[in-house]
Sequence to fold (57 residues):
Amino acid sequence: MTSLLEPGMLVRHPNQPDWGLGQVQSNIGGKVTVNFEHMGKIVVDASRVDLEIEYRS
Fold:
């Protein structure tokens, strides 16, 4: 799933719902930088956390 994450995609952290919606900034070598609404910019190790893609209709 890590390879699916591209800049601009919207995601949520499954263990941190209070962080809110996040926008992927980059995905380099499984390190995904996400800018979350209520937490700011965080680097997530995608081998340890499966970010949930937010699908909007």
Summary: Residues 2-53 form one domain. The two ends are 21 Å apart (CA to CA).
